[in-house]
Amino acid sequence: MKKNITVLGVGAMGCRVATRLLEAGYSVSIYNRSRNRASALINAGATYCETPIQAVARADIVISMLTDDLAARAVWLDKKTGAMQGMKPGAIAIESSTLSIECITELSVLFAQQGISFLDAPVVGSRPQAESGALIFLVGGSQATLAGVESFLSFLSSAVYYMGESGAGAIMKLAVNAFFGIQVAAFGEVTGWLKKSGMDQQQSIELFNKLPVMSPALQGISKLLASENHQPFFPVDLVEKDFAYMLKQAAQIKAQTPCVGATHKSYQQAIEKGYGGDNISGVVRLWGED
Fold first, then answer.
1. According to the model, what pLDDT value does residue 290 have?
2. Among the three residues 133, 165, 197, which one is the final residue of a domain in this structure?
3. Helices 216-226 and 168-196: angle between axes, nearest 10 degrees
């Protein structure tokens, strides 16, 4: 018998995860702050609930895919409607949003105080991977808790990596996003310089893709740049948010992150220019302008 699942947050990622679960025959309850974004899922058989606490009442597994710390705290911790206080005994909470280490630590402590099993399990991947079940989960928390949901996570993913105790998944996710963001910004600077130096930009990008300096992720970005496609799979404003989360924690532990800091400023500039809703590739527009 399939477990009852609740998905908190059915935006770009959550709606695709919920759709995949519905298609596989899971009983799925959903909550989203904007009901109109849940219409397609309701038509597909999901049960929409007006509050998080109602949404989790029957759930064996609750997975959250929210925008930021503010949304996560509101959905989990609100004194009247928060999901945490509505979970049944034995249910497992999975936080798959990209949040700050501070927020994940807070959630972990509060869930433990309530006797609720909790995993931080942010994902690597975007909308296409969510649709096809090819996400990658980076998991922090109890290995015993992970064992209880590993088959569920595997259905949604191509890989599940256990990173360590609570918070380890969140730490690794911020590192992954920062590393990706640095690559994209650096590529934008270099190709912008090549263009202004009189080089053919398309030819330059094609050459880069033949060289070992290009990561697979950057090759994907280069294809988007070649067609000037900035459809927001991973929007600039969320990239900037993740850089800010990493830098805040880096300052607290006195870690030196000069490249992260410099690149963060580029994403802030991109938002100021009006590119916040663009895909991460939109940052490249900073250096392509005349």
1. 57
2. 165
3. 50
The sign of the dihedral angle between the CA atoms of 130, 134, 140, 144 is positive
The pTM for the full model equals 0.95
- Per DSSP, 215 falls in state -
Task: Provide the pLDDT confidence category of residue 231 given band limits of 50, 70 and 90.
Answer: confident
Backbone angles phi, psi at 5, to 5 degrees: -120, 140
Residue 1 has pLDDT above 70, yes or no: no
119 and 216: one domain? no
Q: How far apart are CA 34 and CA 36, in angstroms?
A: 6
> Residue 190 corresponds to which tokens in the numbers above?
């270099």
User: HSE of 129 in the Cβ direction (CA atoms, 13 Å)?
Assistant: 14
- 17-46 confidence digits (pLDDT tens): 999 999 999 999 999 988 888 999 999 999
Q: Name residue, tokens 């970005």.
A: 221
Question: Do 5 and 21 contact (CB within 8 A), yes or no?
Answer: yes
One domain for residues 106 and 192:
no
Q: Using CB atoms within 10 A of its CB, is residue 290 exposed (0-12), middle (13-18) or buried (19+)?
A: exposed
| Structural domain count of the chain | 2
Domain coverage including residue 206 = 171-288
Taking the C-alpha atoms of residue 137 and residue 156, their distance in angstroms, rounded to an integer, is 9
* Residue reference for tokens 């912008």: 192
55 Cβ neighbours under 8 A, 6+ residues apart: 6, 8, 29, 30, 31, 49, 62, 83, 86
- Residue that is written with structure tokens 């105790």 in the block: 165
